[in-house]
Amino acid sequence: MNPLYSVPCAVVILIVIYCRTPVDAGGLNLENIEVCDHTKPGVIKYLKYEKVNRTTKAMSVKMVLTRPIDQSVGLKIEAEKWGSSGWTKVPYLPIIPDACNTMKRFYSQYMIDFWRTVGVKNPDKCPIPPGDYILKNYTFASNPQTEQTAVPVHGRVRLTVSLVDMTTKIPFLCTNVYMQS
């Protein structure tokens, strides 16, 4: 297996971060999560998202890492807004180098909680080691203290989150996250 196809965890972390902002506090309502067509099968073995009640959702995922998430992995996030002519790209972020340390720096507690939940021995350190990771019924509950999410548009939004090999700048994993703000 090509190791560049096996780093889905940053995608899941972003989903966790974006979805923890409560809708009734001006946050985002996660509608759906799907793996992009060009992501190699078997990296994300199982992905389920379900609504528990009006303010709480749960996600379960099984993923396989055959290489560490280290400084050679970047993160690319593209935002699109739904309108009368379909999906329209919105300028958002350039490729973010060193995804693990960047996420740790800006979203430390979310990242530590996520990695602890899936069983990483040192969830506060980068790189994240290879392994099989399972997240079962991880809830996203409304919390008025949660930071606001910096999505630049209102309405129906699609975030395309890709993990990128920083040497080639070629995406090797992609997830579409559909939200309503």
Report what the structure shows.
- The protein is of the alpha+beta class and 181 residues long.
- The chain has a single domain, classed as Ganglioside M2 Activator Protein, Chain: A (Distorted Sandwich), CATH 2.70.220.
- Helices cover 17% and strands 40% of the residues.
- It has three helices and eight strands; from the N terminus they run H-E-E-E-E-E-H-H-E-E-E.
- Helix 2 (99-106) packs across helix 3.
- It is globular and about 45 Å long.
- It comes from Acanthoscelides obtectus.
- Keywords: Signal.
Main attributes of the structure:
single chain; 181 residues; alpha+beta; five-stranded antiparallel sheet; globular; signal; GM2-AP_sf
Kindly estimate the percentage of residues that lie in beta strands according to DSSP.
35-45%
CATH-defined topology = Ganglioside M2 Activator Protein, Chain: A
> In order across it, which strands form the biggest sheet?
1-8-7-4-5
The helix count comes to: 3
Largest sheet: 5 strands, antiparallel
Mean pLDDT: 76
Instruction: Name the helix and strand elements from N-terminus to C-terminus, one letter apiece.
Output: HEEEEEHHEEE
Query: How many beta-strand elements?
Result: 8
Name given to the CATH architecture: Distorted Sandwich
CATH class: Mainly Beta
Tell the overall outline.
Answer: globular
CATH homologous superfamily label = Ganglioside GM2 activator
Residue stretches low in confidence (pLDDT < 50, at least 5 long) are 1-10, 17-25, 142-148
Cα-atom radius of gyration: 15 Å
Structural class: alpha+beta
Count of domain modules: 1
The termini sit apart by 38 Å
Helix content: 10-25%
Keywords: Signal
InterPro entries: GM2-AP_sf (IPR036846)
Protein name: MD-2-related lipid-recognition domain-containing protein
Signal peptide: 1-25
